[in-house]
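Because discrete structure vocabularies remain unfamiliar, it helps to consider an illustrative case, giving the amino acid sequence and backbone structure tokens:
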Amino acid sequence: MGSRVRALAEATPDTRDRYVDLLRVLSLGTVVLGHWLMAAVTADGIGNLLAVVPELQLLTWAMQIMPVFFFVGGFSHALSYRSLRRRHPAGDGASPYAAFLRARLRRLLRPTMVFVLVWGAAALLVQLLGGGGGLTGVSLRLVTQPLWFIGIYLAMVAFTPPLLTLHERYGWGAFGALVAGAVLVDVLRFVLGVPFVEFLNFAFVWLAVHQLGFLRADGRLRLPSALAATGLGGAGLGGAALLVAAGPYPLSMVGMPGEKVSNMAPPTLALLCHGLWLVGAVELLRGPGARLVARPRVWRGVVAANGVAMTAFLWHLTAMLGVYGALLAAGVTLPEPASAAWWAQTPLRIAAAAIFTALLVAAFRGFEQPSPAPVRTGSGPLAALGITLCLFGVLGLSMVGFAGLLEGRTATLIAVPVSAPAAVGMALAGWWLVERSGFAVRRDEG
């Protein structure tokens, strides 16, 4: 693998924005580290360190960094779709939309579906053998929670073509319209008490952050004085602070157990402001970040990490729970969360989780390979149907988990009850349709 990484790193064109790749790696790495730190595991179950020590919730203003990943995604999606449009202009018989979906999702969905199938089979076996209680049952519910990120990312890919068209026509106005939508939703939710309207902010909030990536792709966040990034970050930080201080928004930028209102699920205007300040901050750091990643050794590390980032993200909770499970099986008494002994053990637990994650990455990294060049033709409607099924399947599975698989346990996705078998079925069917949408080749080209 080392020689392959070196070859890829040396073949990187000078025109590539390497800082974007660095941000992608750092954002996913921060999420993984945050999950490992927040887990407050005892023999009685799994809690959240942020609930044990509420003062630490302020750290989420730096460590809830998923908006940066979605911002980077918008930048990459804009470049990718524009490239496909140039190669396949309207009227040449091709479907840029289908090719775009398959090219962007193949590397994402392959490791995701393998994760789903492996954990689904394990959950079925455990429950057939009469297990599923205690830490095992909690694990079966917990391991699928990070899939919400996959679902949101699927939606961003699906909406890239129409939103990019709006961006090219209206620029900052398209971004402003999404922000206005998020504001309206929170007014309807918190002031007028309109039910279910809050779920619209899964689209408005995250797509607004994604839209900032389009603006970056056009160079609209780059000014000699860094005025745009400073203004964006300052407005976001000030807005988030004001909303939390004066409004119904909690301090934590991640979901907390038992919260009446969460900034994350569904997203709120406070989380959007948080995303704006993070985007402004990383843009202000663009210069030193670009100089850092220009170093050959650093760039090789970024290339290597990007090659397995999604696999590591999918399996990092499995590794963490495996470490805790091994400690409990060995009869080790876990210290009280946030105690001095707990903090003293934290570096060792994180190191063990990192080693276990590396082993899982070594086992499953073969499913995360660069996608081949997009095929020339394909079905746009078929691709759209496929990504819709994937979206609902993955989001449903993130909510219901694999616990109670045989008992028909369900969770409510917006207003619809979803079981794990139904969610898995939708995800697999959608994946198959996305793959099929890119395989149609005309006879005169074959």
Observations:
- Strands lie at 39-42, 45-48, 410-413, 416-419.
- The radius of gyration is 22 Å.
